[in-house]
Amino acid sequence: MAKKIIYTPNAPEPVGPYSQAVEVNGTLYISGQVPINPKTGEIPPTIEDQTRQVMENIKAILDAAGYTFDDVVKSTVLLTDMGNFKAMNAVYAEYYKENPPARAAFAVRSLPLGVLVEIETIAVK
C-alpha cells in the first residue's frame, strides 16, 4: 500500500491534525471541506456561497491529485440546518451535471468555525 498525502495551497489549510486528502491504490479520500476561501481566509455568508466555496475547494484538491469530478464516487454532506438542503443541492448539482456520485446528507448540531456546510469526497481512478 502506497499512501500519498495530497496538499495544495489552492484549498484551505487543515484546521486540525489531518491531511487535505490521502491517495491509496487509485482511491482519493478528501477530508471534509469547509467553505474557507484559501486566498482570503474568509467564509461566505450564504448557504449557496458556502456550498460553492466548498465545491471549489474540493475541485482544487481533485486537480492537485490529478482527478476530476467525473472520478468522484461518493460524497457526504453535513449541514447544520436541513432547511438549507434545497439550496445546497442546487449548487452541488452544478458540479455533477451527469452521473452524480452516491451521496449521504446529514444534519449535525454544529460544524467547525460555525460554517453551514461541510462535504467530504471519495474519488477513484
Describe the structure.
- The protein is an alpha+beta fold and 125 residues long.
- The chain has one domain: 2-Layer Sandwich (60s Ribosomal Protein L30, Chain: A).
- Helices cover 24% and strands 30% of the residues.
- The chain has two helices and six strands; from the N terminus they run βββαβαββ.
- The chain has a six-stranded mixed β-sheet, with helices on one face.
- Strand 2 and strand 3 (27-33) form a beta hairpin.
- It is globular.
- The protein starts with a strand and ends with a strand.
| H/E series | EEEHEHEE
Q: In CATH, what is the homologous superfamily? A: RutC-like
Please describe the biggest sheet, giving its number of strands, its sense, and whether it closes into a barrel.
6 strands, mixed
Query: Architecture, according to CATH?
Result: 2-Layer Sandwich
- Fraction of residues in helix: 10-25%
Provide mean pLDDT, rounded: 97
The radius of gyration computed from the alpha-carbon positions, rounded to a whole number of angstroms, is: 14 Å
Strand order of the largest sheet: 1-2-3-6-4-5
